[in-house]
Write a structure and sequence with these properties.
The protein is α+β, with helices and mostly antiparallel strands. The protein has eleven helices and 75 strands.
């Protein structure tokens, strides 16, 4: 099969690629699926229904999503739903979508064809011939060329003029899928594929075993071969013959712009390249039950799922190395350069070495003074390992703790540095230690001049100065003395130094917890670079220079600043254009959501070529500093509609609007359809002729503006994206005029002096001006009060539903949310049948009082915070983790297969027992928990027998049994075999323990049934 012909290519560019001369790159082909960034949206975000069966992008940039329960339009910020109230056909399944070159959206549903344009829906009826069946039929596929739009039908290919649907190419079989080809149109049917061209219709039957297979999807790969997806497998048409490429059922196909062929199967998502299967993706987020595939104009891949909503897949910056590459424990603290391209990593269970694409165990944690390798220095023939309790040296395969390092025992070693004089320096929580070449050890604390003995980071400058960053200030070691270099140069003595970097010209850059900003020392003074200078808030753990940027990694993620922009900010000539790269809770939008980074100190990052290695709690995060993130298509601001009185108007491009006489109140709705994660939209608007300057949105998702009591005159409403280099060039504009009332006309003003005299006229003009000032002031006051009230309400609601210590949901939130969720799940067939259940797990920390008694209540609170974060990481998106009270947590799992409680209980106990909890004094603690579980509904025949609070009561009773069984275990209730509630009982409101006494339920644990205790 040859490449697409020019006439079809022009049509596809106009309709599918939206007239782009230079589209953005597609997904990086050699990157594993797991390393792409996936963002998922579901019903909770605005989708009308969870199953996304069709995806298309229109000329304006909107993404349209068809589901089993209506249609949604997405602009990157908010979903707008369309349902049966907009068009009766939208009550059915939306099976196919297509945006044509004129900006119209064609919608194929299970009840027929719809057209959407200018904000309205229009049903397109079928004009049947004498031998055709009357009535509508499901529309499953579209194709567009120079000769118009083609639609798949039950007896061939149809055409439309926008008002009716007529049979254009009758076929001996149904048209199930369409694909434009070089010499015609390919049509997938039952057991064969037709080609409709200038020379007529040709049939290409599938192999004999697939004579009844329905070709539901067609695609072309980078080599020009035709691919057909069926329920009986995947086929490729090459050199006049079909080849079976995979046996699994196929639901969707897509050839992207970079040569990948994506195959959505029932059991897996496949990726082919150059005709070869390069990846089979099983059960990863975004890859399950895919029914639709779409590549947008920015190169993002959208995957519509039958069960998980829609997922956007994009390259991102990173690759993550962890257990799949052989890492024993993914919690890492330090990274160091080894020999011959090796990279050494220190983690919570010793040291591993990365070479030849795999991690190899080097030193087990049990062989070290403390299992956690917190800092590293790799030298020829030996490696120094700092732990949370002293240091050791590895020579060959032998681990030694030299007697000279005995004073370090008990101290956390944050960094190890070898200076040019051969001295070995140790930054610890118990001061600064130096091991001289002759074996002498010196120890520096407050008595020797440090303001705080807790040393975090060490750095030897290019001119040989040894700088010491502590919890309180910056110091320098010089000829055996400690100098307060920070205070002497103007740095606040209370500044905690978390990272150090030296620019090429010798200037120092430090990270600090004070304001989470950067400080730059130019040899004479310190310059603070924070939010006002365009620098994101972030406690820096590692700073590096690469590819013309300063890269800063810390608690909130990673950002980069062009060095030229950094110079501008240092000189005070304006803010730096910092860009969020990895967003782990940054104070601004944008970037790749991911987890980063761990701990301040030396060895918290390593630049190998263009790759920045960072230690995280989920392995090593590799960031490509040389990657060029294509901006893709510059999105254009759009004025969607204008509300005049009680009517919405949809202005066209370049339209001018004259308002009816007396209309002075207007509401504008606008947006910028954009799906570029690295370039968040920064919308501003103004009414030229009324507003003196551009206005910011009250909130990113509130993309509207309201004006009241406008004076007569000529105006221009403008919307622009200030995230672009030239916002005004891409602004959307709407010209409008407000006509004057009779007493506001020029004629009236000319006659008024003759009728009332000059004094009355002057008084009138003064009155008008005063009213204008009062109106502006009142409007501003109303807007300010409205914003304040909205913000206060939002804060109050968040506080009332959130536990202040852990940030988790509380009982109040669950009381409001769980009944609604259970009502939703009761409409699911699997839930009704009892094969899927909601699981309640009540968890209690064992011997928690001992932590408070031994380490204090602050340490106990810190442990609860970490436990909340651990539990949140263990559950799926959509599950709930709530603090139930004290050291008790309630986990609510959305529907799972019945019988999952054993797996859940075992995993919770194991993960908590394996986790190391940090204490305020730098130490660590391990703990266990007991868990009580129950599945809802207990009896599928009576799903509402017990309310959710009663289910938690039973889970609490199971928890009590787990505690009495020795703790660090789980217990759960389940229906006793053959047991049924009393006939006719559908709901019970009292104490659910009667189920236990009546023998309807039994208690079981890891080893089987448990005896019920009555004490």
């Amino acid at each position: 099969m040859r490449r697409l012909a020019a006439r079809w290519a022009r049509a596809i560019v106009a309709g599918g690629l939206l007239g782009l001369a230079c589209p953005a790159a597609a997904l990086q082909p050699d990157k594993p699926f797991r390393d792409y960034v996936g963002d998922t949206w579901g019903v909770e975000h605005g989708l009308p229904q969870i199953s996304v069966l069709a995806i298309a992008q229109d000329r304006g940039g909107y993404l349209w999503l068809g589901s089993q329960g209506g249609l949604a339009r997405y602009d990157g910020s908010r979903f707008v739903q369309f349902g049966q109230e907009d068009a009766p056909e939208l009550a059915s399944h939306v099976l196919a979508l297509h945006s044509d070159g004129e900006g119209r959206l064609w919608i194929g549903t299970s009840q027929g064809l719809l057209l959407h344009r200018d904000g309205r829906f229009q049903a397109i009826p079928v004009v049947a011939g004498p031998d055709q069946a009357q009535g509508s039929f499901p529309i499953r596929a579209f194709a567009e060329g120079d000769d118009g739009l083609r639609i798949a039908g039950p007896d061939g290919v149809y055409a439309t003029d926008g008002a009716r649907l007529v049979l254009h190419h009758p076929l001996d079989g149904p048209a199930l899928s369409l694909l434009p080809g070089a010499d015609g149109l390919w049509v997938g049917s039952t057991g064969r594929v037709f080609r409709i061209g200038a020379d007529g219709v040709q049939a290409h039957p599938l192999p004999a075993g697939a004579a009844l297979a329905q070709v539901s999807s067609l695609a072309e790969d980078a080599g020009g071969d035709l691919w057909a997806g069926t329920a009986q497998g995947l086929y490729r048409y090459r050199q006049g013959a079909w080849q079976r490429m995979d046996d699994g059922p196929v639901d969707a196909l897509l050839g992207d712009r970079d040569g990948n062929l994506w195959v959505a199967g029932t059991q897996a998502l496949l990726r082919f390249r150059d005709g070869r299967l390069v990846e089979r993706i099983h059960d990863l987020p975004g890859s399950r039950s895919i029914r639709s595939l779409h590549e947008d104009r920015d190169g993002n891949l959208w995957l519509g799922s039958l069960t998980d909503g829609v997922t956007r897949l994009w390259d991102g910056w990173t690759t993550r190395l962890g257990r799949e590459q052989g890492l024993r424990n993914p919690l890492l603290w330090a990274i160091a350069r080894g020999r011959d391209g090796e990279v050494w990593v220190g983690g919570s269970d010793g040291v591993d070495v990365y070479r030849d694409g795999r991690f190899h165990a080097r030193v087990a944690g049990a062989r070290l003074p403390h299992p956690e390798a917190y800092s590293l220095l790799v030298e020829d023939g030996q490696a120094w390992i700092g732990t949370r309790s002293g240091a050791a040296v590895l020579r060959g395969d032998r681990v030694e703790v030299p007697p000279a390092l005995a004073p370090l025992r008990g101290a956390q070693v944050n960094g190890i540095v070898r200076d040019r004089g051969g001295r070995l320096w140790f930054a610890t929580t118990n001061g600064l230690f130096v091991l001289h070449p002759d074996g002498r050890v010196e120890h520096y604390t407050e008595e020797q001049g440090l303001g705080d003995r807790r040393v975090r980071v060490l750095h030897e400058t290019r001119d040989g100065r040894l700088l010491v960053g502590t919890y309180r200030g910056l110091y320098e070691w010089r000829d055996g003395r400690i100098l307060a270099t920070g205070e002497r140069t103007g740095l606040d003595g209370a500044t905690m130094v978390t990272a150090f970097h030296e620019l090429e010209d010798g200037r120092w850059v430090i990270g600090s917890t004070s304001g989470e900003d950067l400080r730059v020392y130019d040899g004479q003074r310190w310059i603070a670079l924070g939010r006002e200078q365009g620098i994101p808030a972030n406690i820096a753990f590692h700073i590096a220079s690469a590819n013309g940027h300063l890269w800063v990694a810390g608690m909130r993620g990673v950002y980069r600043v062009p060095l030229a922009e950094l110079e501008r900010a240092i000189a005070g000539r304006g803010p730096a254009a910092a860009e969020i790269v990895i967003n782990s809770g940054a104070d601004r939008a944008g970037g790749q959501p991911d987890k980063c980074c761990n701990g301040a100190g030396n060895g918290r990052g390593l630049l190998v070529g263009d790759t920045l290695w960072l230690p995280t709690r989920e392995g090593a995060l590799l960031l490509d500093t040389g990657k060029v993130q294509a901006r893709g298509v510059e999105p254009r601001a759009l004025i969607e509609r204008l509300r005049v009185r009680d009517e919405w108007r949809y202005p066209g491009p370049g339209a001018a609007l004259e308002l009816p006489l007396g209309v002075r109140d207007l509401k504008f709705e606008f947006t910028v359809p954009s799906f570029r994660p690295m370039h968040p939209v920064q919308l501003r608007y103004r009414l030229a002729g009324y507003d003196e300057d551009w206005r910011d949105l009250d909130a990113p998702h509130l993309r509207n503006a309201t004006y009241t009591n406008l004076p007569p005159g000529q105006y221009q409403f403008e919307v622009a994206d200030f995230g672009l280099a030239d916002p005004a060039a891409q602004a959307a504009r709407l010209t409008l005029s407000v006509p004057p009332r009779w007493h506001e006309t020029l004629v009236f003003r000319l006659l008024l002096p003759l009728m009332l005299g000059g004094a009355v006229y002057l008084a009138y003009v003064g009155l008008q001006r005063r009213h204008a000032r009062q109106r502006a002031a009142l409007e501003q006051l109303v807007q300010e009060r409205t914003r304040d009230l909205q913000a206060a309400n939002a804060r109050l609601e968040a506080l009332s539903f959130t536990d202040p210590l852990t940030g988790l949901h509380n009982r109040r939130y669950l009381s409001r949310q769980i009944p609604a969720d259970l009502s939703f799940y009761e409409r699911d067939a699997a839930y009704q049948a009892g094969t899927e259940v909601v699981v309640f797990a009540l968890l209690d920390v064992d011997h928690f009082k001992a932590i408070n008694d031994t380490h204090g209540h602050a340490a106990g609170d810190r442990v609860l915070e970490q436990l909340g974060a651990l539990l949140t990481a263990l559950v799926r998106k959509g599950d709930y983790v709530a603090r139930w009270g004290g050291e008790e947590f309630l986990l609510v799992f959305r529907p799972l297969p019945r019988g999952s409680v054993a797996q859940i209980g075992t995993r919770l106990c194991a993960e908590i027992a394996a986790h190391v909890f940090e204490l305020d004094d730098g130490g660590s603690h391990r703990l266990t928990a007991s868990v009580g579980l129950i599945e809802s509904p207990l009896f599928p025949e009576v799903p509402r027998l017990l309310g959710w609070e009663q289910m938690v009561t039973l889970a609490d009773r199971a928890l009590y049994r787990a505690k009495s069984a020795g703790r660090h275990t789980w217990a759960a209730f389940r229906p006793r075999a053959g047991a049924q509630p009393p006939q006719g009982m559908t709901a019970f409101e009292g104490d659910p323990s009667w189920l236990v006494e009546a023998g309807l339920v039994e208690l079981f644990g890891p080893d089987g049934p448990l005896a019920l205790r009555q004490d």
